[in-house]
Amino acid sequence: MAQRTMARESTTKTRRQLLHTAGLIGVVGVAGCMGSNNESGGNGSGGGSSTTAAWIGEAGDGNLTKKHYNPLNFKEQQAAIYNYIWDPFAAQNDFTGEYYPYLITDWSVGKDAMQLQLRDGLTWWDGSKVDSKDLASTLKLEFLVNGAPETIDTISEKDKTTVEIGLKEPTNASILEQTILTKRLNIKHDVFKKYVSQYDQASSDDVQQKVREKLVNDKIEEPYGHGPWQVDQVTPGKITLKKYDKHPDADKINFPTVEFNQMGGGNQKRWGAIKTGNLDGTKSFVESSVGETFPDAIKHKNYPANWGMGLWFNHDDPVLKKRNVRWAIAHLFDRKTIAKNSDATKKPVKVPDGITNAATDKWLGDLTGKMKKYEKDTAKAERLLKKEGFTKKGGTWHEPNGKKFSLPINVPAGWSDFTLSVQTMVSQLKNFGIQSQVKTSDSSSYLSDLWPNGNFRVATYGWAAGIAYPYYTYRLTYADQEVQGAISPPDTVKIPPVGKPNGKLNTVDPNDVLGNLEKKVDKSTEKKLMQKLAWLYNYTLPCLPVQEKLDQIWYNTDGWEYPSKDDKAMTYYDGLFSWLPRQGKLKATQ
């Protein structure tokens, strides 16, 4: 079974995700059990190992019995339980980017194809085997809806446990791994076979689009799965899962049920729940002053979110299109103070080069010392502005045309961490003599009008793509159509040779460098190309990365045994509370 040509993949976070991640962090929890002060109800009443666990958080608004189980229809889906009922292809270390095989036990990337080996012994809840047909169907429909890299050509089943992804041309293995291994097997072929068949037989993009429209609006009413928990009971306010004993890792799990309870009230409600023992784990921001009031049994771990707030420059602006002006503005900000004045989960960007702090040493090494740090230096900012014809009169800076230099900073209303940071930035601009203000717009108009249409001089937006591999941030910056429409950057830039800041300027097309990185490359070439992208980003500054976000996980050790914080099983932020039981590393102790 082969797949027709795929749509272009959207591998970066959407602008809505980038902005909303700051305020709508998914809430996951594992709550237990015997001996705890749990008040959610139905949490066991015996001794020994008769315990339950529960997801307590954003199970969705409304009646949970009305939710559906089509993972590709994002309206009213039962998404809270997905990590529990469907196995991930692999887990990814959020600190290093390393993959830990799971449902996909082995993979290889060759010149013409990528091969995936499916774990043996998996069965659907109805007893049928999970096989390559299910894996191929998952990939086909996922790519149909969300797009695929242009280099992917076909998807075929080589045998019962092997799927081959045919390539149009040799492709960077790191990009393929990030695209494929971060998924989970969530399509049962027998449930979705009509869509798979229609797509395989589609004769044009228009036909594919019609299939896509039907698929994303379909509601699968009956739950299906193959993970270590299966749906047992759904009420308007709670979902109960029971352990699926035929799963290969069922013996590693010593608690029989998982519960997901609706809980409104925002962060404050979750803080109260974990403090009182009604919630044993959550992916949620907790204010420092609140965390200090938690019992000693409540622990937490920070994870790199691989993105944060950036200040984007509109290159259509006659002033901001000048590199010296962007440099000058960057030298006006104290990024440490900005991050500190936001909240405890924000850290200042050390080197504004498009690579997150944690990944800088891996990709740049000694080159980091030759990058521009853009530390606060008002004298340097003054020299750069004067070089472009700016003047300062009566303590206020004026543009070359004589108008006062005004630089309001746009931020979506309601995003408190963005707003707190921007307030500090505005203060620092004013102290230098540049007129500025916090300019808010409701998030809907910000996303649909102000940002995509470039209706700003400078605007806040996520500067990185939320993925450890830096390629995705550079693709967001230089190839994402929405970003291009927002900031209108030039097609080519002039930069000195990598590592030689005072060298002769050469014209470079960032998309040419991206294109070379997308090809099959050895590790040495990959690193050189990444360094070139970092160098041109740092020199031309299409965006000033201001701060990075840290994700937080909080968990209750009262009644539960967790591994140490430095255990590699504790590195998988997105699915931590469903991953640890699969590894036998989250144990009920009462």
Automatic annotation (TrEMBL):
Record-annotated membrane-spanning stretches: none
Annotated keywords: Signal, Transport
Domain of life: Archaea
Organism of origin: Halocatena marina
Source taxonomy: Archaea, Methanobacteriati, Methanobacteriota, Stenosarchaea group, Halobacteria
Domain (Solute-binding protein family): residue spans on this chain: 98-481
Name of the protein: ABC transporter substrate-binding protein
Family: Belongs to the bacterial solute-binding protein 5 family.
Signal peptide (UniProt feature, chain positions): none
